[in-house]
UniProtKB/TrEMBL annotation:
Highest taxon listed in the record's lineage: Bacteria
Protein name per Swiss-Prot or TrEMBL: Glutaredoxin family protein
Tagged with keyword Cell inner membrane: no
Organism: Taurinivorans muris
Membrane-spanning parts: 6-23
Gene3D superfamilies (alphabetical): Glutaredoxin
UniProt keyword list: Membrane, Transmembrane, Transmembrane helix
Length: 140
């Protein structure tokens, strides 16, 4: 290996380390020590105790197109819901949310919706969602 190649490899190695350190700092800078994004403490509590406020709860991801469709569907049908965007949490907070999600959906797939009566709908299943929403309206 030439001296020039060693310099280039060293610079790339140092850059990779610094990028990793800076990325972690930037991520942690926006979260509590537990991994909850600042300003989302109340939502975190709801994620661990779904529907305690009487609203439907949806676990989703920012990158999930089915989640986006389901959000639009719930809004169109006038369903008030709390939105738990799991990939916004890091560390212990995310682990706790995923463990709670697994009690309703062992595969921890997205979206997962918990209704106040305890009904769970996994995925964007329009007919099942409509049936559940209608049943809840009739029982209200």
């Amino acid at each position: 290996m030439t001296e020039g190649m060693l310099v280039i490899i060293s610079v790339l190695f140092i850059a990779a380390i610094l990028t990793g350190i800076l990325t972690k700092k930037n991520t942690k800078k926006n979260h509590t020590d537990h991994g909850v994004p600042f300003g989302c403490e109340e939502n975190f509590a709801l994620a661990l105790d779904p529907c305690k406020d009487g609203k439907t709860l949806m676990y989703d991801l920012t990158t999930c197109r089915h989640c986006t469709r389901l959000q639009e569907f719930l809004q169109t049908h006038g369903v008030e819901y709390n939105d738990i965007v799991v990939d916004k949490y890091i560390g212990d907070a995310r682990k706790e949310i995923v463990e709670k999600l697994k009690t309703y959906n062992p595969r921890a797939s997205f979206p997962t919706v918990i209704f106040p009566d305890g009904s769970v709908v996994i995925g964007f299943r329009e007919n099942l969602l409509l049936e559940t929403i209608e049943r809840l309206k009739q029982n209200a």
